[in-house]
Amino acid sequence: MDKVVATAREAVADVPDGASLAVGGFGLSGVPDVLIQALYERGVSALSVVSNNCGAMESGLAVLLAAGRIARVTGSYIGANKEFARQYLAGELEVELIPQGTLAERLRAGGAGIPAFYTPAGVGTQVADGGLPWRYDGQGGVALASPPKEVREFDGTEYVLERGIRTDFALVRAARGDRHGNLVFNKSARNFNPLAAMAGRVTIAEVEELVEPGAIDPDAVHLPGIFVQRIVALTPEQAADKRIEQRTVSS
C-alpha cells in the first residue's frame, strides 16, 4: 500500500514516447511542474496531452510544448500562450478544443467507467456538427477537421454525445497526500486535478506535504487513493516554488 516513489524521475521512468497524459492544473494553479520537468529531462516525445490549457509563462506543459515534445492537445483554452497558438496555426500540433465543462465531465466519466454521456453544450455548433480545425496545413487551410457527433433529443431538448476520456498516465499536484495515495488539494488548486487523476490508468501525484496514513481525516479527502498509483514528496523548495501569472499593483 505504500505508493511513495523516491524521485519524480523514477515516478515517470516508464512513460514512453507517444503516451497519452491527463494533466491537472489551471493556468499556474495546481500544475505538477516537478513531474513535467522530469518528463522533459527524460526526453519523452510525441505525447498526447489532455489538460485545460498547455502551460503558461514558460512553465508547466509549456516546457514540453516549446521543446516540440507534444503532438496533440485536448483542452479548452489556448489563451495567452503564443507558442501554443503558433504551433497550432502552423500545423505542427493537433488540437481538439472542447467546452470546459465538457472536458471536466469527459475526464470524470472516463475515470468512473462511463464510456459516453449526453450534454446540451455545443449543440448547434461545430462542436456537434463537426468541422472544427484539429490540424492546420500551415498555409491557412484545414488539414484535419473534427467529425460530426451523434445528437439526440430528450424531452424536447437536443443533446450531443461526448466520449469519456481515459489516458495512459495522469500527472497531478496536491497540497497533502498520504502513503496510500489519498489526496487533499488547496482551494483553487483543486481545479482539474481530481478529474485528471481519475482518468489516468496510472496516476502519479506530487504532493507538497507527505503524511502518514490516518493523518488525513477521511471526510477531508478530496481524491481517494484508489485513483493514485504513485506519490512523490516535494522538497520544501519545490513546494514553495509558485509563480504569479497576473501581478496587479494598486495605487
UniProtKB/TrEMBL annotation:
Signal peptide extent: none
Highest taxon, organism lineage: Bacteria
Keyword Kinase annotated: no
GO MF assignments: transferase activity
Pfam families: CoA_trans
Protein's UniProt keywords contain Transferase: yes
Keywords associated with the record: Transferase
Matching PANTHER family: ACETATE COA-TRANSFERASE SUBUNIT ALPHA, KETOACID-COENZYME A TRANSFERASE
Family label: Belongs to the 3-oxoacid CoA-transferase subunit A family.
Name this polypeptide is given: CoA transferase subunit A
Organism for this UniProt entry: Streptomyces levis
